[in-house]
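Model: Ready when you are.
Researcher: Fold this.
Model:
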Amino acid sequence: MDITQFVVSSRDKALLYGDYSTYRTQLAHRLLNIRKKLRVATRHRGKYNHKANNIKPEQVAQDVSYARLQLLTAERAFAQAMAMKAAHASNKKGITGHTRSHIVSRLDKAAKYAADMSDLLQEDASGASDVDRLEAQAYAAMLRGAAAFEKQAWELCLANYAAVWAIYSALSSASATRADIFRDLLTETIEPSLRYAAYQLKMPRSKPIPIIAREALSSAKSVAATPDTGALVASVNKIDPSILQPKTAATADGSESLESAAPGTVGGVVASTRTLTWRSREVKIEDATIASAWAALDLAKARLEAQLVAGGARLAPKDKAAAYDDVLTVSQDAVDATKAAIDDLRNEGIPQSDPNMQLLYIARTAANYEMISDRIGRNRVLTGPHDGAVVQAGPVVTRKAKGKAAVPRPEAPGRLLARLKEKLVLYDGTLQSLETVKELPGVAADVELSEQLDATAKYFVALKSLAIARSHTLAGNAANALALVKLANDQATEAAPGLTDADSESAQKKNSPLLSIHVSAADVSFLQNLLQAELQRARALVDIEKQQPSAGGAAKAGALALSETLGEYPQGRAVDLENIVTYPPRIQAMPVKPIFLDIAWNYIDYPSKAGGIAGVASAVGAAVSVAKSELSQQAAPETSSTPPPQQEQPAKRGWFGFKR
C-alpha cells in the first residue's frame, strides 16, 4: 500500500500550492470519489449509512480502496486540526481552551480511524505485508502522539513517538528506495517532538534518542500502534536488531556487534562499558553523549577500514581521502561532546581539581588527538604513496591526427611544480596539526609522546625539504637542491630512532590500512634509502655544473647582440660570434620618421643640379612666403562680399609627383 509515501506525497502536493484548508478540501473530493467507487456514498437527502465504515479484512484483500477510505478519513480530520492550529497561530493570546479542545478532538478522530485501519491490516485475511502493517502502526502512533502533544500528556506522547521512531528507523535501514522519505520524517517531525517530550519529562538533554526510545517503549504498557509493546519491539528487531539495542564497538568488517566487546578494540573504546583507554589510562565515561560519539567513531573507522580493504589499489588518492570525511565528522562530534560536558561542569562551579573534571579533560585530550590523527592521515593519503616521497609523473596522451595511434608525451615541468606546491600545502598543514597536538593538555608532561611527536615532525620536515629540492632541480638550481636534500637526509636520520621505537610499541596497527599520525618504521626506512640516492644524484649534478665552462656567462646574459651594435667598434674586446642576433626574438621599439616631415615635403621644391644652394634657398623662401600669405588670409576678416582674385599656387609635388 505504501502508506507513508501516500501520506507524505499527498501533503507535499497540497501544501505546495495552498495550506491545510486546501488539503482538507482535496481530501473531501477524494473521499467522495472513493465512496462512489465502492458504492457506499450517501445519497442526496438520504440517511447516513454507519455500516459503511464497518470494513472487514476480506474486503481489504479484494480492494485496497477500503483501506484508503479510512486513511483519507483520518487525513481529513488531521488536516482540519492543522488548519485550525495554523489559523490561530498568529493570535497574541495563542490557542484558547475551546479551540485547543476542538483540535484535540479532530486529532483523536484521526488517530481512531488510523488505529482501525491498523487493526484491519494486522489480520491475515487482509493480505497485507509485514511492512504495510508496520507502516500502519507507525501512522496510527504518529497521530496519537500528535493528539497527546496537544493535550500535553507527555508520557503518552513520548511512548507513541518512540514507537514511530523505532519503526521508521528500522524501515529506513531495510528499504533503500524509500529511505529518504523515512529519514525526512524522522529529522523534521519525529525527533524534534521526541526531544521536546523528553525535555518536558525532565530527561537530560545529553541522552541519545535511541536510549530514550528504548526506555520509553520498555516502560509503556501500550501505544496507539498496538496494545502489546513487546510485539512491536519484536517486529522492529526482526527487521534491524541494532535499532533498539545499545551500540558497541564495531567489528573489523564494519558491522556493528551487539555483544560486549573486549577492551583494546578499534581505538580502545567500548561503548557498552563506557570506558576508553588513553596512554595506558582507563577513563570511565559518565556522559551518554560522549559514549555515543565514541561508539560512532569506532563504527566509522571500521567502515572506512573495510572500504579501503575492499577498494585496494583501485581507489584514487582523492577517493580515499573523501572516505575520511565521515570519520572526521564523527571525531569532531566527539570533541564537541567533551567540550560541552566540561562547560556544563564549569557553569555549575565545579573546580578543575575535581576527579570528574580531570577525567573529562583526559577524554577531551583523547578526542582531540584522534581527530587530529585522522586529519593527518587524510593529508598523508592525498600526498600519495610513501607520503609523497615518490614522484608519480603520468604521461599525457595526445593524438597527432585522426586515425593514428596515441603518442605519449612527458608531463610538463609546470604541472610537476604545481603538484609539488600542493604537497607543500599538505605538509604545512600536517606540521601545524602536530604543533596543535603538542599544545593539548597532558601531552607536554608525557615525555615519550613528546619525543614521538618531535620525530614525526622531523619526518614531515624531511618530506617537505625533498619536495622543495625537486622544485629547485626543475628550475636548474642544482646547488640549492643539494642543500635541501642534505637537510632532508639529516632530518630523516634524526627521526628514525624515535619512530622505530614507537612503531615497535604499536605493532597491532601495522596491518591496518588506515593512515594516522603514527608513522611506521617501513616508511622511515624507505625515505632514508630514497634520500641517500637523491643526495648522490644532487652531488653529481652540482659537480657536472661546476665542470661546465661558465666564462662570460653572466656578461653574455646581459650584453646586446652584435646586430644591435653595428655602429660601434668593439674596443678592448673580441667580437662574440655566439651572440649575433637576439634569439628568441622579442618585441622592440624601432625609430620612425615624424609626421611633420611628410607635411613639410609638400611645400619644398627640389632644386636642380644647376641651381645649387641658391635654388634651395629660393625654394625654401618661396615656401615660407606662401605659408605666411595663407595664414594672413585666414586671420583677416572678410570686408567685402566679392571674393579676392585667386593667385596661382605653386605646384606641390611629393616623392612620386602627387600630393601626400
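Researcher: Now this one.
Model:
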Amino acid sequence: MTGLTAELVVDGRAPRTPALAPNGQLLCYILAPLSRTGDHLDTELRLVDTDGATASRRATADTSTESRPRWSADSGTLFFLSDRADRGTSQVHRLTLADGAATAVTHWRAGISDHLPLADPNLVALLAQDEPTERDARRARDRDDAIVVGEREPRDRLRLLDLRTGQVTTPAVFGDRHVVELRQRPDGGPLAVLTQASGDKDYGPRTGQLHLFDPATGATVDLGPVGVDAHSLAWWPGEDGWHLGYLALTPPVLHAGTAVFVLTVHSRVVRNRTADLPMCPTELHQTDTAPLVVFADGLNTTLARLDPTGPTTVSRHPGRLADLTTTPTGEKVAALTGTRYQPPNVHLGPATGPLRKITNTRPELDGVTLGTQRPLAYRAADGLDLDGLLVLPAGQSASDGPFPLVTIAHGGPYDRFADRFQLFWFPSAQWLATAGYAVFLPNPRGGQGHGHQFAASVAGRVGQEEWTDILTGIDLLTAEGVADPDRLGIAGGSHGGFMAAWAVGQTDRFRAALVLAGVIDWGMLAATGEYGQLDAALGGSTGWSGVGPHPHDAVSPISFASRVHTPVLILHGAEDTNVPLGQSVYFHRALRHFGVEHEFVIYPREGHSIRERPHQLDVLRRTRAWFDRWLRP
C-alpha cells in the first residue's frame, strides 16, 4: 500500500466534458491537469471507442488549452476550442475523423467563447465578443483606458460561421444583450437563445430572456423573461407542439432550489415541472424525444426522463454523476462518475444503467491507503431528516475511537457532499483521514439534494438552523464515541469558510479552525462580491437598507469577532472576485485587534479557486500542519 502525498493529490489529471458522437461509436473528452504549472492550463482532447476495443487516444498533438468538444450531426467531424495559435485566445477548430487533421476555422481576434455546429453542415453558431477596432487599438497604445462602467462592457453576441467561405457574420438581433446559451431544435429548426442584459454576474442572471432565431432566414421571436440564472436549454416535441425547458432558481427568493421550467412555445405558458420533489435538478439534456434530467438526490444521483406527467426515474447512481452526454435517442449515455474510493472517470452505458468505466485517468492512486467512508443519516433538532458522510482515519474502525474530528462544511450553500471520492486540493476528508483524523461532512439545510424548501430555508437565516444541523451531527458522533470532544476542528471554503468563521464566534468547542475564502460580512459581500444580490438574499439585507443595524449584521461572523478564542488559519486568493480578499483582511484585522491566535495567508494571482501547483501544495501541507499543531500536539 502507498502513502498519500500532497504531490499525488495535485499532480493528477481529470476528465472533463465528455461528448458522445451522435452515432454512439466514439466519445470525446478533455483531459485536464488538476493544477497549473505555467501561465496556461494545457489540456488534451482525447477520443475513445465506445465498444471498448481500444484505449483512449489523444486526438491532437499541440500544446494548448482545448475545450468544448461538439460533434457534427453526421458524427464525422469534431469541433472544439483551442488557443494553440495565440495562447489565451480560443478559436474553433475542426477535426475530420477521415484524415485526423485538425485545423482552425475561425480567426476572430476577440476569441470564441462557445460554439454549436448546426443541422446545416455548412454552419456553426458562435458566441463571441466584438473584435477590437482601430480606435480600441489606439486607445490601448495611448493608455487611454479609463473604464466607464456600463460602457463598452464585454458581451457575447450570436454570430454565424460559414464553413464554405470561412466568413463570420453577426446577425443584427437581440440588441445589446449578452448571449449566454444556444440550443437548436432537434429537427433542425430554429435556435433557442438565452440572453441577459449584461455579462455582470450580479445583474445579468436576474434579467434573462428567451428568444428564437432562425439561422436560415434571420427571423427572431421573443418568448419573454425566464427565471433567475436560467441555463441548460432543451427542446422536445409534445402533442401540443414544441416545448422548451431550462433550469432556473425557484421564485420568489433569489436563493432557492433549482427547478425544471417548461415553456409551451405556441401558448407561451410556463410551468414548474419539478415542484415539491425531494431532490434537485442539476442538468437538463435534449434528446429527440423527452429530455433527460439529472437530479441530486440526497447523497446520490437519480437520472429521470421528463414525461408529460412529470419526471420518471430511469436509473439511480451512487454518489455524484455529472456532465451527462447522450446520443440523440437518449438510449446511450456517458457521464463523469466514480465511487467512494475512486475519482471520477468517464462511464458509458444505457440510460437505464448500469454504466461501465471506459477511462482510468488516475492509476497512480491505486494502492493508496484511504479512510473508510460511510453515509450518515440523522435528524435535526426540529426533526428534519439530514444526511452526511463520515470518513474514519485510514486503517481504523469506529471502535478504535474517539478520534480527533475535523468537520468540513461545504460551499454554496446550494451544494452538497455526495457519497463520492473525497480527495481534493482544498480541505478534504481523505487528505485528513490519511493523517489520522476522523472527518465529518454534513449536509445541513440550505444545500442541494432535498428539494426547494430545504434549500430556500436559509435565505436571510444563514448560520441559524444550518449551524445547529451541523452541531447536532457533531454531538451524535461524540455520543457514539467516534469524536473526541477535546479535539474538534472545523474547516470550509467559500460558504463553508463562512460556517467555520461563524462557528468559532458561537462556541469555544473547536480547538482549531480553517477559513478558506470565507464570507465574514454579508453586507460587504453584497456590495463588492460578483454575485451581490444573490448574496444579499442569503444575508438578508444590504448596507443601503437604511440606518443599521441591518439583518445581515446579525448573521455576519465579523459581528462576533470579540467572542473568538479558537486559533484560525485564514487562506485567500488575492484576485478573488466571488468572495473578495477584503473579507479575510477584515477578519484578520479583527482577530489581531482581539489578540486571537491566527495565521493569514494570501495567494497571489489566485481567484476563488487556487489553481497554481505550488499554492495547492501549500494549502494541503498547511492544512495538515495547522490541525496537527492544535488537535494532535
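Researcher: Key takeaway?
Model: Residues 613-631 form the longest helix (19 residues).
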